[in-house]
Amino acid sequence: MRKRTLISSAIAVTAAGAITIAGTVVAQAQETGDEALAAAIDAILTDKRLTDSQVGVTVADANTGEVLYERNGAKRAIPGSNDKLTTTAAALEQLGGDFKYTTEVLGDRPTDGVVAGDLYLRGSGDPTLLEADYDRMAEDLADRGISTIDGDLVADDTAFDSVRSGTEWGWSDLQFTYAAEVSALTVASGDDYNAGSVRVFIKPGAAEGDPAQLSMAPANDYVEIVNSATTGTTTSVSVNRDPHDNVIRVSGTVKLGTNGTYATRSVIEPTQLAADVFADSLADAGITVNGDLRFGETTPQGPETLASHQSRTLTDLTAVILKPSNASVAEALFKTLGYEATGTGTFASGKAATYAGIEPYGVDTGPIRQVDGSGISRHNMMTSNMLADLLVGAKKADWFGTWYDSLPIACKDGTLASRMCGTPAAENVRAKTGSMTSVSALSGYVTDADGRELVFSVIVNDFLYSTVKDIEDKIAAAIAAHTTAATEAETLRSANVDDIEMPAEDPNHSLECTWVEPAVC
């Protein structure tokens, strides 16, 4: 606790917080205002879980940029999903909130219901396409009287390059949605828009010992499921995709009389899954494709657009990314930035476009490194100072309202839905979380008890306990409780930090809470 004493001679501090000199009790003056806030944060950071860990913290005035507190603010660290802050800010700056993805079906003008040549399915990067969207495009073709494709169905995903995974994505992560392969033509498993994945539903049979009943969304013939799961008295299911092929193995038990459970797994080569789904959609619409499926070819000049689908606006998709920390949409957006800037969607062109989008808002990209759009890579390096600069600078952007409204709100929604409840930060803090093994981050906005709007960024690396998120919450709550008149002790007491308990060890704490299935927030 930082205190300013009034006496410089030999003193002793009493348990009550006063000092004694030769038997005389003299009141001890405690710092207030920003110094008290700094002392409160320092006290929170004495948590033994942070011993030998790397901690970067910056707190600043949201309107002036004046730094109120900094610890290791210029030191680079892995930001986790705080990476999505730069991706979405750059996208709103470079593409605009009205931006939409367009997916097209192209071919020669039909004659007597027949498309004479190949039919092209051309993607532009839309990560939110669902099975129902492919069904509608097929139905639109049928409504035009098309009944036969005399050539092949060609899946054009060439808006993005063929590098499907980012630098240093963990091998053990690749079957999960947050590390799904990136393609310009894909399909999502549900309306939470986990692109390039399938969702496996596991339901009990009619009696104990019966095989579990499985189904997939989207329905397809591209992924094979091997089922050894049975109906039992408890639900304990293992769902794993083979490392080198699209075989998903389901084992364990699902409890009799329940609705069962589900698990979502990414696929290898999502373009081929999308083409398989669309081929089924065409068949369901009564359209026969006489040829084969082909992949990765550019649509030639000449064919006309026969059907198309547009995504939701980028304004809508920003919340889809930030509130649940959707990685596959963020990665598609990263490559889309590169595609719109250069004509080629790559991780490298996405990085350049992202930097160009945030630099006008006072962000120095020299000391940082961003290699993907979602923060999955451990090659990403950011600083709490840099993220605070972005948070301050973004307030000057015409897209700020969209970005701010898309951030998770403490004790209300997104990845903060169950955090900071019962503190002054509840429904006050708007911030982006970050979660990986030994990586945790929280950066965003908070209004203190005097009504002053502040920004903060906390990045913690190299801790051994499963989570330090309660420490982040205490810092955010202390900032929310801060007043110019409060001492350190009063700030901590007003913040209710004692009510924010250290969570038990939990292997799921290395994940964003929305990535756990079913979600735990």
TrEMBL record:
GO MF annotation: an example: serine-type D-Ala-D-Ala carboxypeptidase activity
Keyword tags: Carboxypeptidase, Hydrolase, Protease
EC number: 3.4.16.4
Broad EC category: hydrolase
Protein family: Belongs to the peptidase S13 family.
Xref: NCBIfam families: PBP4 (TIGR00666)
Name of the protein described by the UniProt record: D-alanyl-D-alanine carboxypeptidase/D-alanyl-D-alanine-endopeptidase
Species of the source: Glycomyces tritici
Primary gene name: dacB
